[in-house]
Amino acid sequence: MYATKNVRPRSSLSTDDNHRIKDTNRPHKAPGNTILTLVAFCVFLLVLCGFLLGALVYVGKNIADEHQRQQAANSTQAALNGTIRTVYVDRDQLLSTKPILSVFSDNRAPTTTQVPSNTKSRAMSTVAPAIRAASKVLQKLGYRLPKEMKPSKYKLQLRPDLNQKNYTGNISISLEVLEPIAFIPVHVKQLNVSTVDVQHLDESGAPLKSVTPTLTFSYPEFEYWVTEFEKPLDVGNYTLRLNFNGSLTDRITGLYQSSYWDKLKNRN
Ligand SMILES: *[C@@H]1O[C@H](CO)[C@@H](O)[C@H](O)[C@H]1NC(C)=O
Ligand SMILES: *[C@@H]1O[C@H](CO)[C@@H](O)[C@H](O)[C@H]1NC(C)=O
Ligand SMILES: *[C@@H]1O[C@H](CO)[C@@H](O)[C@H](O)[C@H]1NC(C)=O
Ligand SMILES: *[C@@H]1O[C@H](CO)[C@@H](O)[C@H](O)[C@H]1NC(C)=O
Ligand SMILES: *[C@@H]1O[C@H](CO)[C@@H](O)[C@H](O)[C@H]1NC(C)=O
Ligand SMILES: *[C@@H]1O[C@H](CO)[C@@H](O)[C@H](O)[C@H]1NC(C)=O
Ligand SMILES: *[C@@H]1O[C@H](CO)[C@@H](O)[C@H](O)[C@H]1NC(C)=O
């Protein structure tokens, strides 16, 4: 073992020094000192072996950990890829100051997703002139959702495609109209949205009749998707269903896909 050459001096030097001093005085004690040197050397070798063993165990453990991490990453990828996620959000979570959505996968094992807050200054884009002309509710839009309605439940499905790096999804929003209102705004950001339908529900929560929107448009100033009606909606319970799609890679907003460079492994 090459290491013994380097380290030998430490334990054997002191003995050697002794040796030399004692050599001049009592040369006949030399055999005992040689045994001492050998014992010290053996102890040193033992310690060295201990260190090497420790190092081996450490490296082995790291390899095992890395393997586990990879497996976990692989199974996460496989689980996310192409499967439909269902998200249930209740009103308390919406009103909570912490922007956290509880996400239940299809097998109901809860995970948590941090929703980035939309505090960035808004792009001062304007709606298309056609919308400006057609809409009867534009001037009624503000930053906050109107007090005439109260959303109670969101059922969200997401289908990410990790290969195409985009996703589709749909959402069914249960809401209660407290006072007649002719539009439903929902917050969206960097999404392609379309309104599927709006159902007026009866007392029991069953669909009563479908309400046809007259205009749907996105309103980027306030990050809204607006579903507008000819006449104000009657007081009562409704469900609004939307389809949407978006990119996983455009930016770090909402649902996104990201990777990082592992400097140690020199790979993604
Ligand atoms: C993870 O997937 C990659 C290819 O996508 C594969 O090379 C690797 O062996 C997998 N790792 C494990 C631990 O299954
Ligand atoms: C994701 O799903 C597609 C098919 O939907 C499949 O071709 C691809 O190999 C999957 N990718 C991963 C990383 O599992
Ligand atoms: C995702 O990207 C692929 C390839 O660019 C495209 O064909 C597909 O329509 C996109 N899907 C969505 C939901 O945007
Ligand atoms: C949208 O919702 C329907 C159920 O209403 C579901 O069958 C479909 O898979 C969903 N699509 C996506 C992209 O999540
Ligand atoms: C994405 O959404 C837009 C707007 O709803 C829609 O026109 C388009 O067909 C969607 N694309 C896909 C691939 O679903
Ligand atoms: C709307 O639903 C709520 C429960 O979410 C219920 O308390 C209320 O009575 C319903 N209103 C109508 C008009 O059905
Ligand atoms: C909307 O869809 C189009 C094509 O379907 C796509 O090119 C565009 O990136 C999508 N917009 C967003 C914000 O994902």
Distance between the first and last residues' Cα:
38 Å
**Overall average residue pLDDT:** 71
Give the strand line-up of the largest sheet: 3-2-1-4-5-11-7-8
Derived structural class: alpha+beta
Give a short account of the largest sheet. 8 strands, antiparallel
- Distinct ligands: 2-acetamido-2-deoxy-beta-D-glucopyranose
Oligomer: single chain
Order of helices and strands: HHEHEEHEEEEEEEE
What share of the residues lie within helices?
Answer: 25-40%
Uncertain spans = 1-24, 88-125
Alpha carbon gyration radius = 35 Å
Tell the overall outline: rod-shaped
Helical stretch tally: 4
Number of strands: 11
Give the DSSP E fraction (strand runs of 2 or more residues). Answer: 25-35%
Question: Mind explaining what this structure looks like?
Answer:
This is Blast:Aminopeptidase M1-C. GO terms for molecular function: metalloaminopeptidase activity; peptide binding; zinc ion binding. InterPro entries: Aminopeptidase_N-like_N, Aminopeptidase_N-like_N_sf, Peptidase_M1_aminopeptidases. By secondary structure, the protein is an alpha+beta fold. The chain has a domain of 151 residues. It is built from four helices and eleven strands. It has an eight-stranded antiparallel β-sheet. The protein is rod-shaped and about 110 Å long. The protein starts with a helix and ends in a 21-residue tail after the last strand. The site of one 2-acetamido-2-deoxy-beta-D-glucopyranose (NAG) has 6 residues, from strand 4 and strand 5. One 2-acetamido-2-deoxy-beta-D-glucopyranose binds next to strand 5.
